[in-house]
Amino acid sequence: MDDLKKKYERRVKRERAARKEAETLLEQKSLQLYELNNQLQRQADELDNQIKLRTEQLEIARDHALAANKSKSTFLASMSHEIRTPMNGIIGMTNLLMESELHKDQMRKVSVIKNSGEALLTIINDILDVSKLEAGKVELESKDFYLHPLLDSVTSALAVSAADKDIELLTLVDPVLPIELHGDEIRIRQILINLIGNAIKFTHDGYVLLKLKALEKENDERLWVRFEVHDTGVGISSENQKKLFADFQQLQQSEYSGIEGTGLGLSICKRLATQLMDGEIGVNSELGKGSEFWFELPFMASRKPFETRRQETTFAVFHNRSLLKDKYVDMVVGMGYECDSVATIQEFLELSAESHHSYLLLDVDYLNAKQCQLILDTVESNPRIAARWIGFKSVKDMHTNTTRIFDLCASGEISKPFTQFKLARRVQSPDQSSMMMEFRTPEDLIIPDTSAPQHLTVLVTEDNMVNQMVIKSYLEKEGHLVTIANDGVEAVELFEKKQFDVVLMDIQMPRMDGVSATRELKKIMQASGKTVPVIALTANAMSGDREKFLSQGLDDYLVKPIVVEDLNELLDIHGRPKA
Amino acid sequence: MKGIVFTEFLDMVEEKFSDDIVDTIIDASDLSTDGAYTAVGTYSHTEMLQLVTHLAKETDIEVPALVEVFGHYLFQRFTKIYPMFFADVDNSFDFLQTVENHIHVEVKKLYPDAELPTFETKMLNDNTLELIYISKRPFQNLAEGMIKECGIYYKENIELEVEDNSTDEGMNVRFLITKH
Fold it and tell me: Residue A447: helix, strand or coil by DSSP?
């Protein structure tokens, strides 16, 4: 019994010792766990602190970058502004100099000055645009505008550059597009000029085609218009395409050497199309095969819906280059007419003798000497053959024979760039008016006011002496009488003493600024009962400025550097006696 | 109350009295685990009170005296089980002052849920240390036994003056420890 008890006691002892050892082990492990846990916690805290620190550093860096970018934009904007003012003087005086008697060599030198000045102004305007876009200071103007006159004015503005390179500039508009759109015409024009201008720069042979299409987008009730600028130029590699729309990017490709520019144009286009107008922009191109730059913009639904045309008028086109002939056929067919493509000049002359086609279209630029002679001979024997010819020619000087043929075209002459709108106006006659609804614009838009120019007495308030001279010369050339005031105070004094028809008012001036001076003038007008328009002269050409000036009592505004045509147009509007 | 107090208590009863008494007091008490304790567990202090009360009955020794004896025993055991707490300390005052801010901190690492008494200490002069024992449980005699054993461990002649300021809210006992 004792043995058994001892045996059990030994077992109990062993068990107890084992339990104690297990407890000790457990405590040790617990302590290790505790330490590890602490270590992890410390590491987590450290990481947390590092993240906080890095985040702070990043925030500081970001703020610095933003501030730096902002000051860059501000600096660029004010620099551009400062440069524009003297540029106004340089270009203005150069214009005047070119109108004076110069011998050939002097004229050539002055032209270089003018071209350089204008090139510089373009660059400055680009920089100013980018700065304003970056600063979010560009506002859209939303107005109704007519599509075709816009396209005409864009292509006309680029006609000389295209003609200089013997490139055809063509426009093809989807006939379902409404003739009137609601949007910012100026900005669309800016993008188009840029894209087409680029296309001309990079194309050495062939054509630049502006193509407009109507688009429908899913879940979008707005009317989308796709503008495409196709060229047969050098093309762009896919690698370079990615860089195209970034700021200050000029492609480093041998094909592009010798082409100038700030590298800002496409970046401006992109910001205008995407940020401002809620659209899209892009490019399709292949090296050596030309490019297609495109942008798509949404517009409010058309106010003038598409009307179906009668298709009684038929056309035939002859062109020595089949590539371009196809484009002309497309353009005419795009207007809703039938159009035949004519293979040879002989066939063209034969068709002219028949009465199948209402009009026969002829690009005289591409005729060779033999063809010219054949045409002239044929017309000499049968003058009536040219009765239904519409000729088109480049804006450049031409060979005598081609000029003669152009003059023969009895149904009309079209100066390139050829557009559907120009053709429509040419073939349109009173009895056909309903037929061409889509391509008509209200008379007042295209027919200039022909009333006799008025000679006005103008008070020019401007503190810059060069600007004074430029404006004075412009005005005196039109026969206006000019009085100069050096600042607002002088303007008010002069205005009290003398009668004026129009006041031109600089905004930033010493002693009394333009806005205050205008306020004073308006008081004098109120007292005398005679209203005289006050036109602001400003270098601050920002959207919204017009409203600002108008709200401050000014009647209109002109942007410096002053463009003669704009000045004359404004004087024409405001100088007219009030009905 | 930490399990080690229970296991050490039962060891002491077995050692100082007998294993039969251990069985007796366990049987007499109403215990959550039928007396099977582990050092790393946590148990209600009322179980300890029951065990001590029954031990007092069995041995005819007053509860406070038994608890104080257990304090002596427990301190001796701690010096063996946890030598690291004594390694850098060479006198009782220094040691008692480490209890609150060192030993209890270590205990909390292992047993974050342990409800430990507090020992506020203050040197009144070179030879006098004030120690205030604050606890929800009535184990001031345990503390007294341990303090005394601490003096013995460091071979010092110390004297204890006890002032009980306890209320219904809890124990608050001031020990004035004087070194001679």
Answer: coil
Residues B168 and B98 grouped into a single domain = yes
Are B110 and A30 a contacting pair at CB < 8 A? Answer: yes
Residues in B touching A23 (Cβ below 8 Å): 4, 38-40
DSSP one-letter code for A273: I
One-letter amino acid at A255 equals: E
Q: Residue A211 phi/psi, 5° resolution?
A: -125, 130
Within a domain: residue B48? yes
Q: Nearest by CB to B39, from A23, A31, A34: name it.
A: A23
Q: What are phi and psi of A28, to 5 degrees?
A: -60, -45
What does the pLDDT read at residue B94? Answer: 93
Q: Which residues of A touch B38 (CB under 8 A)?
A: 19, 23
In the CATH scheme, what is the code of domain A457-575? 3.40.50.2300
Contact B108, B116 (CB under 8 A): yes
CATH hierarchy code of domain A143-299: 3.30.565.10
Q: What percent of chain B has pLDDT over 90?
A: 73
- pLDDT 10s digits, B155-170: 999 999 999 998 887 8
B109 to chain A: nearest residue by CA?
A34
Q: Give the pLDDT band (50/70/90) at residue A471.
A: confident
- From chain B residues 72-101, the ones with a CB under 8 A of any chain A CB are 81
| Residue B11 in domain | yes
- To the nearest whole Å, the CA of A19 is away from the closest chain B CA by 8
Q: What is the pLDDT of residues A163-214, one digit of tens each?
A: 888 888 999 888 788 888 888 888 899 899 999 999 998 898 889 999 999 8
**Are β-strands A412-415 and A389-393 bridged in parallel, bridged antiparallel, or unpaired?**
parallel
Domains in chain B, number: 2
Domain coordinates of chain A in residue numbers? Answer: 143-299, 314-444, 457-575
Architecture category of domain A314-444 in CATH = 3-Layer(aba) Sandwich (3.40)
Instruction: Select from A20, A26, A34 the Cβ nearest to the Cβ of B109.
Output: A34
Q: Please, what is the average pLDDT of chain B?
A: 92
> What's the pLDDT band for A451 if we cut at 50, 70, 90?
very low
Domain identity same for B97 and B44: no
Question: Would you say residue B113 lies in a domain?
Answer: yes
Residue B78 falls inside a structural domain: no
Q: How many CA atoms lie within 13 A of A316 on its CB side?
A: 20
Domain that includes residue B47, residue range: 3-61
Structure letter (DSSP) for residue B74: H
Query: Is residue B92 located within the same domain as residue B127?
Result: yes
Contact residues for A328 (Cβ-Cβ < 8 A; gap 6+):
A170, A317, A319, A339, A361, A363, A418
| Claim to verify: residue B174 and residue B94 sit in the same structural domain | yes
Is there a common fold for A314-444 and A457-575? yes
CA distance linking residue A410 with residue A428, whole number of Å: 14
A-B contacts (CB, under 8 Å): 19
pLDDT band at A430 (very low <50, low <70, confident <90, very high): very low
Task: Please count the CA atoms within 13 angstroms of the CA of A479 that sit on its side-chain side.
Answer: 6
**Strand B128-135 vs strand A314-318: parallel, antiparallel, or unpaired?**
unpaired
Q: Where are the alpha helices (DSSP H) in A529-563?
A: 545-551
Q: How far apart are CA B120 and CA A102, in angstroms?
A: 109
3-state secondary structure of A561: coil
